[in-house]
Amino acid sequence: MERHLYSHMSAEEKDKSGLKKRCETCGREFLDKKAYAAHILAHKGQQFACDQCPKTFHWKQGLRRHLVNVHGKASKNSLKDS
Predict the structure, then answer these.
(1) What's the pTM?
(2) Which of 17, 24, 44, 79 has the greatest CB tally within 10 Å of its CB?
């Protein structure tokens, strides 16, 4: 029930409630628990490397978007973990 009530709070109410989360790595603050959890995974998670240039991405979707926008269309062979 507490999580449900939290979802209905405004950003200002969340801030006043002390529920704001701060990333210990970079200092970025989050009011949303899911966004905070995803951000932490980005710091700790695996990297996905482009096989056509030196760029790396925290999320496979970021690599797919890069491959389509920069190099043309993404192929299954282009998606590799680094």
Answers:
(1) 0.49
(2) 79
